[in-house]
Write a structure and sequence with these properties.
elongated; 12 helices; ten-stranded mixed sheet; alpha+beta; binds zinc ion; 24% strand
């Protein structure tokens, strides 16, 4: 169910070898620098500084320092961050930062409220299961489960007490993970604190195709941000260039980031998050298009979001939707002219396959297969119009960003060398990506009319198969008619003749049987030889 089936190939050991090499690189570059002024030296000096200035840091018997982060300024100044432990237990609110000059001499300190973690005993009087039961009572969403309660020293408000910390995870309305952390006193059983483990956040993405965009992300319990859209429920993952089948088995890796700023805005980027920016933003645009235009609540109209895998395969110049995993797979392009397959109309196209599956379920062969593909092209393009992006403007070209100058076009589909402009008996035998031409041509004529026209700076010239002149009704009305035809009248075996009848019924419902819209729909079908 891809924009083009021509480039498909099966992937195996080559992709696995590439992933192994990648992991090896990550391990190698992760080796710390032990030279003076380097990271390891800074950490060693910081540990010594905390011990030497124990009063300043509240550092005493039973405590440990757990390295969390190191920031080295350009002038050599060092900032070493630690979490604190007490009797081996994590101290919540016990973190501290050691500020040192370039030679490791202490110049300042920062410490959280919980700098005195001493508790009378680190043996809990209240059993873990009581804490877990309390946590489950506070669980968000449905299908909640509690992780094993963790014993901690809770000192976030400055008063240290032994506590159980339990994370409960449920499923939110959009199918997204919804987690809550519940803290109870391990000596008295009293509730101490309860807070969302994840927070919705607005990230900044430097995209490949649409400039800088806002991303709906989620703040996780560990403070990092993830490409989980808390509004729409979409999750974006790295497939590590494994084949589609391997990805379904391994499930990829969720994208996370420390500062919620993602990608570098380049095509074929070495930053693997860049393609993820486009994928995450463009699935959101598709979701919003359906919701705000037609009131459709997600692909299946059940409010649930899908998973998007980017970097699937090696030089896989394609993308696809799978009902089985309720997920999209996107490739990295062909390695030379075509970059990552994650642009607006491509993502809209793939998600629309899910919408079609959930509605008319047009069989993916013969004329119904062509209508299935055409439906994805139509709404993929409409997502582009809906987004109103200044870089990737609305047009009647399909995959113009990721397969430049375009993979298919609507005004005269045959310009790609394979697609049909006009219906004939031969159309049923074409590949579905070419028999879609008849539907795409209809959509252009119904939207913009026949003949030469320049729209948003792109020159089109749409012929008619019967020499007639067609006047368009605009693409919003044509798309509304198509959406109603798809969701109300079409069935799995609808052919082009049936599509004409379905769209006329839809036009009648929306605008009346005597309307200009109804007349234009019929005229456009006649103009592509569907009588
Ligand atoms: Zn497709």
């Amino acid at each position: 169910m891809s924009p083009s089936s021509a480039h498909r190939h099966v992937l195996g050991t080559a992709a696995l070898a590439a992933t192994a090499a990648l992991l090896l690189t990550a391990v190698t570059t992760g080796t710390a620098d032990a030279a003076p002024g380097g990271r390891d030296a800074a950490v060693a000096r910081a540990r010594a500084n905390v011990a030497r200035h124990a009063d300043l840091f509240g550092y005493g018997p039973g405590q440990g320092l757990v390295l969390k982060d190191v920031v080295l300024d350009p002038d050599g100044t060092q900032h070493v961050r630690f979490d604190r432990s007490y009797d081996g237990l994590p101290v919540v609110g016990g973190d501290l930062v050691v500020h040192q000059d370039a030679r490791g001499r202490l110049v300042d300190s920062s410490r959280a409220k919980g700098h005195d973690p001493r508790v009378p005993s680190t043996r809990p009087a209240v059993p873990a299961r009581r804490s877990a039961a309390e946590a489950l009572r506070q669980a968000p969403g449905t299908a909640a489960a509690a992780a094993a309660p963790e014993l901690v020293v809770w000192a976030a408000d400055g008063t240290a007490r032994l506590a159980w910390r339990t994370t409960v995870t449920g499923t939110g309305k959009q199918g997204q993970p919804a987690s809550r952390v519940v803290v109870t006193d391990a000596t008295t059983g009293a509730a101490i604190d309860s807070y969302d483990a994840e927070h919705s956040a607005a990230g900044t993405g430097h995209s490949e195709y649409t400039g800088d965009v806002t991303l709906a992300t989620t703040r996780q319990a560990d403070g990092s941000y993830a490409l989980i859209d808390p509004v729409r429920g979409h999750t974006t993952k790295d497939a590590h260039n494994l084949s589609a089948n391997s990805v379904k088995a391994t499930s990829g890796t969720l994208y996370t980031d420390a500062d919620n700023v993602w990608g570098d805005g380049r095509k074929f980027s070495a930053d693997r998050a860049t393609a993820a920016v486009d994928a995450h933003a463009n699935t959101a645009w598709t979701y919003d298009y359906y919701k705000n235009t037609f009131g459709r609540n997600g692909i299946k109209n059940d409010g649930k979001g899908a998973t998007v895998f980017v970097h699937v395969g090696t030089d896989w110049d394609n993308a696809q939707w799978s009902d089985a995993c309720f997920c999209m797979m996107t490739g990295d392009g062909n390695g030379s002219t075509d970059p990552e397959q994650v642009d607006l109309d491509t993502m809209g196209h793939e998600m629309t396959h899910g919408v079609t599956s959930a509605t008319a379920n047009l069989r993916y062969s013969g004329e119904s297969g062509g209508l299935n593909e055409s439906t994805s092209d139509i709404f993929g393009t409409m997502v582009e119009w809906y987004a109103g992006n200044a870089v990737d403007t609305g047009d009647y070209l399909f995959s113009d960003q990721s397969t430049p100058p375009w993979l298919r076009r609507f005004d005269q589909p045959s310009l790609d060398g394979s697609s049909a402009d006009c219906w004939s008996k031969k159309v049923a035998r074409l590949d579905v990506h070419y028999s879609s031409g008849v539907g795409n041509h209809w959509f252009y004529l119904a939207s913009e009319g026949s003949g030469a026209k320049t729209v948003n700076g792109v020159a089109y010239n749409s012929p008619t198969c019967d020499g007639s002149t067609v006047t368009g009704i605009g693409n919003q009305k044509a798309a509304a008619i198509w959406y109603r035809a798809l969701t109300v009248y079409m069935t799995s075996t609808t052919d082009y003749k049936g599509a004409r009848a379905a769209s006329l019924s839809a036009a009648r419902d929306l605008y009346g049987a005597n309307s200009a819209e109804y007349a234009a729909v019929g005229a456009a079908w006649s103009a592509v030889s569907v009588a």
